[in-house]
Design brief:
The protein is of the alpha/beta class. The protein contains 9 helices and 6 strands. It is globular and about 45 Å long. It starts with 6 loop residues before the first strand and ends in an 8-residue tail after the last helix.
C-alpha cells in the first residue's frame, strides 16, 4: 500500500441499525456512504455519495436518526454494485472518520460478503480517527461532531437529521480547523507530508483564561459508561456511542 500523503478522504456512513446483543453490526447493512476529498488542504469537490439498498428493513430507531426509509432505497444500488467504485475512490488515501471503529466495522462486514480479496480497508487506506484526536485536544469535553462544530463556530442550524454526505463535509471543515485553521490555502508537498506523518496534538495554554479543565475520575467514568449501556439496551442505539 502506497499512501498518497496529501490526499485525505473524510467519510461517514448511515446504517440500518445495530444489534442489541451479540456483534452489533452483524446482519445490518450500510444504506448511505458520504465521502469528501481534500488534497493539500483544499476541498476538491470530487466527492463520493451513494444511497444503498440494504435488502432488509431499517430499524425504527435508526430511521429516527437519519430519516432514510426503505421506500426511498428500493431502487438504489446494493453495496456489491458500487463496491469497486468505492474501493478505487478511497484506496491509497488517508481515511478520516469520526469514531472510526463503527464505520470501519460496517464497511469490512460489507466487504466480507463480496469475497474480492480485501478483508479490511485498513489494507488499502490509512485510517485516522478524528474522535481520538479531538479527545486529546479537548480532554474532559464533549467531542461529538455536533459539539466540535459548535466549538469551531461551523453552522449546523439546517442539519435536522444525520446525513453521511453532510456529516462528511462537516467533518472535513472541523478537522482542517483542528489541524491548522486554514482550509483552502495550498502548501508544499514536503510540508504536507511532514505535517501528516503523525498527529502529536499539543494543547495551547491560554494564560488569559482562568478556566480549569476538571477531568472525570474513574468512578464517574464507570457510572457514565453504565448509563450509556443502559440507554443502548433499552433503545437499541445510543448516539453517544457514535459521538
Amino acid at each position: 500500500m502506497s499512501i498518497i500523503s496529501n490526499r485525505q478522504i473524510f467519510l461517514d456512513t448511515e446504517t440500518t441499525g445495530i444489534n442489541k446483543t451479540g456483534v452489533y453490526y452483524e446482519g445490518h447493512r450500510i444504506i448511505e456512504i458520504g465521502a469528501v476529498e481534500v488534497i493539500n488542504r483544499r476541498l476538491t469537490g470530487n466527492n463520493f455519495h451513494k444511497y444503498l439498498n440494504p435488502n432488509r428493513l431499517i430499524n425504527n430507531e435508526s430511521f429516527k436518526i437519519h430519516g432514510i426509509s426503505n421506500h426511498f432505497l428500493y431502487n438504489k444500488p446494493t453495496f456489491k454494485e458500487i463496491a469497486l467504485e468505492f474501493i478505487n475512490y478511497i484506496k491509497d488515501s488517508e481515511l478520516v472518520i469520526h469514531n472510526a471503529l463503527f464505520d470501519i466495522d460496517f464497511i469490512n462486514y460489507e466487504m466480507s460478503k463480496l469475497k474480492i480479496g480485501i478483508k479490511s480497508i485498513e489494507n488499502i487506506c490509512r485510517i485516522t480517527d478524528s474522535l481520538e484526536i479531538s479527545r486529546k485536544m479537548f480532554p474532559g469535553k464533549r467531542n461529538s461532531l455536533d459539539a466540535l462544530c459548535m466549538r469551531y463556530k461551523i453552522d449546523i442550524s439546517n442539519r435536522k437529521l444525520h446525513s453521511a454526505i453532510i456529516d462528511a463535509k462537516l467533518l472535513s471543515e472541523v478537522f482542517l480547523m483542528m489541524t491548522g485553521g486554514q482550509i483552502s490555502l495550498s502548501f508544499s508537498k514536503d510540508n504536507e507530508k511532514q505535517k501528516y506523518q503523525d498527529y502529536n496534538v499539543k494543547n495551547i495554554n491560554k494564560r488569559e483564561s482562568s478556566l480549569k479543565i476538571i477531568l472525570a475520575n474513574d468512578k464517574e467514568i464507570l457510572a457514565h459508561e453504565k448509563v450509556i449501556d443502559l440507554i443502548k439496551q433499552k433503545k437499541g442505539f445510543c448516539l453517544w456511542l457514535k459521538a
